[in-house]
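Please fill in the sequence for the structure shown.

STRUCTURE ENCODING:
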């Protein structure tokens, strides 16, 4: 084979590797939101936001479930929905000896019901490190147990950032914004 041919093949291989790398990094940075098409029938007004479960296999930072919950709550409060106060919720969680590791859909519904909420927001921390932050969030109707909406978003933390908070806020605000846009579209039908 001629030397020029080998260089050309190496160039094509390199371009293929670059294209695959770019496609995979773009897919990872895309927020995903699914809203139940029957949203109108649920009509939740009061939400409970529980601490997020940390499923990051590399970073088991103890405070992460509460840090992420607080960031999501700060973003979600802008929706205009009523959120059960953290003090009221934390008091109940302490009373029932709640542990973040106990969170399941049914347990979340039970807690939301005890707090007279219409829906519970449960979240999972997929990644919480200096390279990526990834969350998965869903809202469940307390009365029916139906998932009202669910979304996820993983975002790379820019190399020049020394803290995760701005990226975390961006992720939570983006997920809430995607939900509101989808909700508006469904309710307008």
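FILLED IN BY: designer on duty
SEQUENCE:
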């Amino acid at each position: 084979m001629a030397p020029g041919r080998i260089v050309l093949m190496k160039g094509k291989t390199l371009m293929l590797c670059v294209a695959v790398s770019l496609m995979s990094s773009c897919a990872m940075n895309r927020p995903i939101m699914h809203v139940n098409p029957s949203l109108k029938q649920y009509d939740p007004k009061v939400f409970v936001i529980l601490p997020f479960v940390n499923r990051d296999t590399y970073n088991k930072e103890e405070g992460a479930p509460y840090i992420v919950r607080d960031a999501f709550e700060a973003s979600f409060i802008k929706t205009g929905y009523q959120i059960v106060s953290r003090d009221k919720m934390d008091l109940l969680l302490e009373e029932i000896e709640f542990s973040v590791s106990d969170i399941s859909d049914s347990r979340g519904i039970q807690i939301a019901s005890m707090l007279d909420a219409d829906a519970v927001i449960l979240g999972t921390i997929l990644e919480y490190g200096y390279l990526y932050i990834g969350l998965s969030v869903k809202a469940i109707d307390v009365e029916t147990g139906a998932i009202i909406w669910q979304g996820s978003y993983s975002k790379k933390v820019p190399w020049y950032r020394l803290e995760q908070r701005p990226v975390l806020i961006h992720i939570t605000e983006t997920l809430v914004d995607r939900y509101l846009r989808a909700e508006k579209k469904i309710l307008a039908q």
